[in-house]
Amino acid sequence: MISQFFVLSQRGDNIVFRDYRGEVQKGSAEIFFRKVKFWKGDEAEEAPPVFNVDGVNYIHVKVAGLLFVATTRVNVSPSLVLELLQRIARVIKDYLGVLNEDSLRKNFVLVYELLDEVIDFGYPQTTSTEVLKSYVFNEPIMVDAARIPPLGPAAMFMQGTKRMPGTAVTKSVVANEPGGRKRDEIFVDVIEKISVTFSSSGYILTSEVDGTIQMKSYLSGNPEIRVALNEDLSIGRSGASVYDYRSSAGGAVILDDCNFHESVHLDSFDMDRTLTLIPPDGEFAVMNYRMTQEFKPPFRVNALIEEAGPSKAEVILKVRADFSPSVTANTIAVQMPVPTYTTRVSFELEPGAVGQMTDFKEGMKRLEWCLKKIVGGSEHTLRAKLTFSQESHGNLTREAGPVNMNFTIPMYNASRLQVRYLQIAKKSKTYQPYRWVRYVTQANSYVARL
Amino acid sequence: MAPPLPSQRSPSPSQPSGRSEVSDLKLQLRQLAGSRAPGADDSKRDLFKRVISYMTVGIDVSSAFSEMVMCSATSDIVLKKMCYLYVGNYARCNPDLSLLTINFLQKDCRDEDPMIRGLALRSLCSLRVPNLVEYLVAPLAAGLKDGSPYVRTVAAMGVLKLYHISAATCFDSDFPATLKSLMLSDPDAQVVANCLHALQEIWNLESNNSEEASRERETLLGKPVIYYLLNRIREFNEWAQCLVLEVVSKYIPSDSSEIFDIMNLLEDRLQHANGAVVLATIKVFLHLTMSMTDVHQQVYERLKAPLLTLVGSGSSEQSYAVLSHLHLLVMRAPMLFSSDYKHFYCQFSEPSYVKKLKLEMLTAIANESNTYEIVTELCEYAGNVDVPIARESIRAVGKIALQQYDVNAIVDRLLQFLEMEKDYVLVKDLLRKYPQWSHDCIAVVGNISSKNVQEPKAKAALIWMLGEYSQDMLDAPYILESIVENWDDEHAPEPSYMFTDKEHRGPFEFSEELGNLSMGAESADNAMPAQRYEENDLLLSTSEKEESGGPTNNGSAVSAYSAPSDYDGSLISVNSQTQPETAISIPGSSAYTSPATLAIDDLLGLGVPSAPAPPTLKLNPKAVLDPATFQRKWGQLAISLSQECSMSPQGITALTAPQALIRHMQGHSIQCIASGGQSPNFKFFFFAQRLDGSSAFFLVECIINSSSGKAQIKVKADDGSASEAFFTMFQSALSKFGVA
């Protein structure tokens, strides 16, 4: 049970403020914002998502640069409230197409209308876009999706390949196409966040895939659909530790664990690995999964730091794309902390490098190397000369690194989990809705140690 | 639309409260109130939106209440909703005006559209105006019997709202009983859930007052209700499932077959994508198996995988919540998680609150089999750019070392951190627990340049180590002294206590400095925290006996030096050097006119009669003075002479190590009792004895800065009259140093 719900901008302005029970004072938004802003004084430490000030519990999530906050005086389950806040954000996004400060400000009346139905007297009622549709009457006012920076995992398709209809994912579930008719289509996105840690000698120390099969349906009449996954998919490892790696070159995909959306029927899952569901409107995760089985990391990262004379050092960063040339990774960023006494850095890119940028972030003492794209099979190198303000302590590798890498690879998935087919229960022979199955892999924590 | 757009008609910047905008809005609303012209609803929508945007940013628009109500007669549902929102927000501060709304809300409660009926009923119950309660009862009673489930869900919540406005009215109308029967019979799951919400809250609040209420509360947790809810659990939406699971977790089954039935029924809830459902299910499982140890363990094993999946699937806030639960389980049964340690490794992009939790868990689950991997991983974090996390990681390593078996390897690693000037605190703690490591540690500690130690606790730890192991570290006093000299920059209370603590242990007592130091601390605001810190630390201390000297010692140091401070208040804040300097000018010149000071009493008593020094001065080449006596004398005597002189360039080059000078000075019958320092600052304490039978001693402190080539010399003498002559000898001896 929550008492208030509000959304604050990055500067702390109320965009939406709803008091459900009148138990918490009106100034709570300011109290909250001040606390979050100055959590530990100077130390750049983030406020935890749940904290208590003067008997009031403040629970918040950050979505698209906005703070979604709930307050309560009772001892509620924090995970329930956090989940609820996240879900409210998602419902709003379903309605507005795009969730950001601008769209929220333009549509705050609609948001109030939603909030009225989502929560009553502090108790959650429903967060299903499907159900809410029949109670909500405001028409969303669209913001120009092209102008805004893409947010969220689904938005990545906009920048990637031209094959994707970019605007679809930023389309409201209730808005009609300019022609007046809704376009029947369904998106199934397999989104994988991968975490890999390489030792200094290049071995993989840990690796994990956190994946989601996300669905967004614009199908009229709510037909039943069947999603078929790899036939040899197995879940859970019998016996010993989850972490005993088994090399499985070309073998079966073994997930450690997974969970499913409540609309999913698993009746035939054990037999033929198909999920049956009637997709509700809006965006939702059909299935979340986790895999620690060894997989081939998309990038090999080599980093070297060496002394080059007194108070000087040289850094060599090498990135090799270990995937097919038909696939292209984009928005790659490589970061490497350098010794704190580094004063100057000069970079040397390989000859003919296009779309690469380098920077020395002096405040954070960090090298940054950004590449617009990397084609599968290619290799890129960066050399950097560091100048120090003092002589190094002789153990440079301990004072620099680790190298962290961020990237997005459309049409690639590390786990090899596949959607074999997507079947829509036919209403008629002429009914041919658009079906999009897309894959994307993102770095969650891609670290190479020195 | 929020924030409010400034009205075109009155853009006056002097009206930040928006009052003119509000009156402007009122006017426009009034004009539209009766209008049935086409497009009137659209204009009303715009105006309503503006009113609500003001409301959101906190501008008081309650003065437009009657206009809003006047405009509310409309069939446009969007307008109606905005009006309800407005009324609900301001009714409480305008109880009289809210009466105006009753009429149209009651009318809407009888609308043929169930949506309108529901909305109106919800708004009616949300007015929170006590004297309007009488108008609520009839619509509520009708709402609970309404044919539309939407209206019934709203009505069930409405009963709870009524209870909060007037509990008596709620009971008089027998609403709780109606809710109960509705809960057990309604076909719509959300109605059932809302009835359960309402009844739970009502009986919980009432149970303190009446026995009947606590009986009712018990029946909610009774077998019939629980089984009824469990059997329908799949009909409920995810949030209502959480509610049901919460209720079930309080249920006490009669036997173990019941427990297994419930668990088997709920097993698939662990695969739900909603983390709240999974955690609520876990809570049920843990509660049910509390008394069955072996099953409880199995449950832990069963929970691991879904919890770990949740950690990875949600936002970082959600993973934090899940990790906090895992943290709890890990603390209860670290053994069960010892093979899953890799899951608690920190990831690069995680916020610090997640990393901190993970570090704690890694510390907890470290055992013989995984210590090496965990410590290796933690050591990697030590170089983290995020300084607090780096520090936490090192601390975690220290904690593991304190509880673990493989201390050998860990200490080695910690010492590497020391060399990297990372952290000292835990080395201190380690040494307290494993004094046998002291020899390895002090070698490293001795090389630490105190200038690089910034963190107050680290400083305190360093000082402690220097004090504790000073007998093994020849340089300790000198390192300490340089810390003292930089004392002015120090504001934190911890190190000052450490000073007083180690005072009585050092081979040398720099009581002068220390005295001033404690006075400085005393005068500053941090004196109290310093005291308190001592006491706290005493409780933790492993060497209580030594520590307990702290507070009293501190006290005595202060009182010993309260005398000088009596005559010169400004002394309190001056550093150690200035006090002696005031005294020096006296013996050197013949002017004894300055206000006689207590501090130089001894000196005056000794030195007044014969100011001109005897021309010849012979020194005892085999003079002996034990350190304790030196120390005592140094404390007792005032400085009779202090001067700076230049060293010869040859002398400087010869001064690679203190020993060279010491041997040289021995040749001139001047003995060294202590020396130390690092280039470019060396410090020596010399003494010499007169050979003429008076056996008076000269004590010398000589600080040589090899980069400037200067030597600062302070002489204290039993016989002050001879100090001038002695100084001349000393200086000539020094100047010959390095000149072969």
Automatic annotation (TrEMBL), chain A:
Tell me the Pfam families matching this sequence: Adap_comp_sub, Clat_adaptor_s
The chain positions of domain MHD read: 183-449
One Gene Ontology term of the biological-process aspect is: vesicle-mediated transport
* InterPro entries (alphabetical): Adaptor_comp_med_subunit (IPR050431), AP2_Mu_C_sf (IPR036168), AP_mu_sigma_su (IPR022775), Clathrin_mu (IPR001392), Clathrin_mu_CS (IPR018240), Longin-like_dom_sf (IPR011012), MHD (IPR028565)
What is the predominant subcellular site recorded for this chain? membrane
Q: Which UniProt keywords apply?
A: Membrane, Protein transport, Transport
PROSITE patterns under this entry?
CLAT_ADAPTOR_M_2 (PS00991), MHD (PS51072)
Which GO terms of the cellular component aspect does the record hold? clathrin adaptor complex; endomembrane system
Where is it localised? Endomembrane system
Q: Which PANTHER family does UniProt cross-reference here?
A: AP COMPLEX SUBUNIT MU
So what family is this one in? Belongs to the adaptor complexes medium subunit family.
Protein known as? AP-4 complex subunit mu
Tell me which species this is from. Cocos nucifera
UniProtKB/TrEMBL annotation, chain B:
Pfam families documented for this protein: Adaptin_N (PF01602), B2-adapt-app_C (PF09066)
Q: Which UniProt keywords apply?
A: Membrane, Protein transport, Transport
Q: Does the keyword Protein biosynthesis apply?
A: no
Residue span, Beta-adaptin appendage C-terminal subdomain domain: 617-735
Which residue windows does the record flag with biased composition (Polar residues)? 550-559
Might you name a Gene Ontology BP term for this protein? vesicle-mediated transport
What this chain does, per the entry, is described as: Subunit of clathrin-associated adaptor protein complex that plays a role in protein sorting in the late-Golgi/trans-Golgi network (TGN) and/or endosomes. The AP complexes mediate both the recruitment of clathrin to membranes and the recognition of sorting signals within the cytosolic tails of transmembrane cargo molecules.
Name the chain's protein: Beta-adaptin-like protein
